Amino acid sequence: MFSQPRVAEVRAIAEAFGVHLDAEELEAYTAQLGEQLTVLDEFLQDPAEEDRPPLLFPERTPGHRPGPDEDPHRAWLWRCEVGGAGEGLLAGKTVGFKDHISVAGVPLTIGTRTLDGFVPDFDATVVTNVLAAGGTVAGKNTHHGFGGLRSMAGQLGDYWDAVNPHDQTRQTGGSSSGSAVAVAVGDADVAIGGDQGGSIRHPAAYCGVVGMKPTFGLVSHMGATYGGDPSIDHLGPMARTVAETATALEAIAGYDPFDQRTVREVPDHIDVLTKLDDGPEDLTIGVLAEGFDQPIESELRDAVLVAIDAVAEAGAKVVRISVPEHRQAPAAAGALQLAGYRAARGSGGFGFGARGFYPEALIGALDRSFTMEADQLAAYIKFTWMLGELSQRNFHGAVYAKAQNRRPAIARAYDRALGEVDVLAMPTCHTVAPPIPAMAAPADAWRRELDVPKRIGLSFRNLQPFNYTGHPALALPCGKVGGLPVSLQLVGRHFDDATVLRAARACEQAVGYDSAPVGGARR
Asked: 192, 179 in Cβ contact below 8 A?
């Protein structure tokens, strides 16, 4: 049900658009707007058939919120057990999903209490694909979400942050923090995380697991949401080994007509397993000079180079390579995401203008969260929205346009390098997991959150470029410094995810890294 507009409301809306109406015009506009809202309401109530994504295995229970005894590492917002097919690539495997991914009948929070009580009535395509491949949905994983990247400011978000199993005084990375921790401690065989600027690979690096951001569009994003631009949205698998990661990717990848990000190059299915163990002998690895820019922890740098040397000794050819545009990409990617945040706020998080499935109930819940309960959101989110609005008012869309238009040239720069080598290699992050900052007093917490946008740039400078260009990128644990994981990132050609995984498998075997947390026996 809708409310008929009032004259004062119409005046305020008009003025927000820079339109000024006299009293006679306001009366006429108000009457006509009321009539047209009635027409729209009639359309909305029309029960005519609509195409919806499939819902496999609909008999399911909602599960429960785990307590500390069941979830000592706080990796889960919700636990459940939704069984899939009796056979398939993921048969017998448990899979966790970052809590921005819809599972029908299971609560969805997207990391914000403003969505408490919301339960979707559809499965995201990755959920459907996991169930079809025999996997079991084990629950929804903790993440920072619309609570903001609060752990980086010493806060724990709207719910809680996961605990780094290697050292509970250290950060878990974000925003797919619970996904990485659940995999690291053995609570899930696989987790599906989300990556808009590095949010799979960042926590994978800090927690010592494998995390893959596939080629843009290869894995459907339908049924997942976030606050940034749809052109940088990725979902991908996280697991303890490259083989488990490759198996999960093969199970969930493929063309999806319900996803607006699907492009004509996306195949119906992929094969990343057949050549996974072919070895490194005919692989050329390009060590990206700009990926080692200062500041970088010297011990971490050395550990990454030792891992690359190990795969060279196993037979891979290693060369040095330069892509100067790598230094330009973060600024362009950040500008794009900033403008995208503003647009997403006005579209219930799912955008406009593309064919695909638009979940009405979820879009409505998000829009109410954005507009009616915005005071409850993190200062980081409010600041981002305001900056996006001021950018629009001052630059009139030019920032977004330039960020989009710069993308092909930067992508070509990486493509030229990848014409000479099979994969690019660099540190995933420039530090090991840093200490958790001391908690700020409640009255001061919001001030610290305002600094998050300035401080995340260094952590994500090797990650964000490949969301922007869409190249596949994988974080691989390759050693430890002071008991904390070190991670090597490998980047490949578009839709050549198989070679990235093959190179990662060769590195994994050459290094022989044990990612098990100290004292953190897996179940």
From this structure: yes
